[in-house]
Amino acid sequence: MENFILGIKNFFNFNSSQKENKKILNLTPLENSIIECKKTRDKIKQYIKTLEKEILKVKEKSIKYLKNNNKERAKFELKRKKMYEMQISNSEKQLEIIIEKIIEIEKTQIESEVLKTLNQSNEILIKLNEEVSVDKWEFINDELGQIKMEQDEVKNFFNNNHLNYNDDSYLDLEIENILKEESENNNKEINENNIQNYSDNNNKVFPEVYKGNLFNDSNQRNEIKSKKLIIE
Fold this sequence. Notes:
The chain has 232 residues and is mainly alpha-helical. It is 89% helix and 0% strand. It is built from seven helices and no strands. It is rod-shaped. The termini are far apart.
């Protein structure tokens, strides 16, 4: 009997533990509803099992009292058995309601996720449609149209002058000359830059040489000449 009372207390006090768990978990309202319903379902199932055990106990007691010719006590135990059976019946109805509620909430959750996915897809489609707008397509068409007009102009010129537009054999040599000329220009530019850099660097070390200011003094020039004669 003590176990039965403890089971009932646990059943009616499980909501307080739910509140504590809710503080710990950061879940959506739908997820919280599903968890609470499933916990309630499990508690009802456990409660039914407890009642079934109590029914077996009171049935054994009623048999024992009947064997001892204590009919009144046996009737009382059988009434308790009836009470537990009714409680089981009510609990099973509640369990059925809870299971239906779980199915309904899970269905709503799935529908919500589908709607969220559809909304995200719509946003992506809107952005893609903006990127491929009519104005951009028209701009691309204009560009392609201009290129085609230029190609047609060149083709017509070749045809009018009895030239083969598809003959590219002479272009290989021309491309080779262009690349060669471009390479020479690049090398020339590199050499000019190297000379300029060399000039700038030496100008920093011997500025008077490149400015024409060295040997401005006649005495200095005579001194250098005399040293030169001695060396020779």
